[in-house]
Design brief:
Elements (H helix, E strand, L loop, with lengths): L15 H11 L3 H10 L2 H10 L7 H10 L3 H11 L5 H8 L5 H17 L9 H10 L5 H15 L3 H15 L4 H14 L2 H8 L2
Length: about 200
Amino acid sequence: MKRFGINPKGTLGISIPTLRRFAREIGRDHDLALRLWKSGFHEARILAGFVADPAQLTSAQAERWVNDFDSWDVCDQVAALFEQMPFARKKIRQWAVSDREFVKRAAFAMIAGLAVHDKAAGDGQYEPFLQLIKRGSTDDRNFVKKAVNWALRGIGKRNRPLNRRAIAVAKEIARMDSNAARWIAADALRELRSPAVRLRLQAR
């Protein structure tokens, strides 16, 4: 776990597939999720994200959880829950400018998730996210820049108009005086211009 950048503190050694099986057996149980989170155990918190009810998650609970993040895997798994909250976009705007590494990562992980899962969102709803991506692209912290890159690629793979827009934003980011920005732009452009992505978008 340490080799993959996962914080080993409070871990039990339970795999994600096993946790997902537990979650299927449990179903939605928000009260249990709150107790699991309070336990402080690494895998218990991931399981909490799987069984919590996003409709019952309050703003205060989301704030407590996001500020407890101490590892990218917990952050990313729980971000998949957060993106389903009724106030997800409000939290993205708040968290994307946070000084805290995993709070900021959560915002961009949520953007990446919404780009894939929110089928009903219009293209215009992603423009504010692209502006947050530009703003966040100079953050050279590893877990932030990778999430910013993930969000940009996610938006650019949504459809052809957003692909063109994400490429344009990536070119703007590439001109910034920042090693992190140049890395984000180069990696995103490599995928967004790839034959595989363009072929997939043409088929939609």
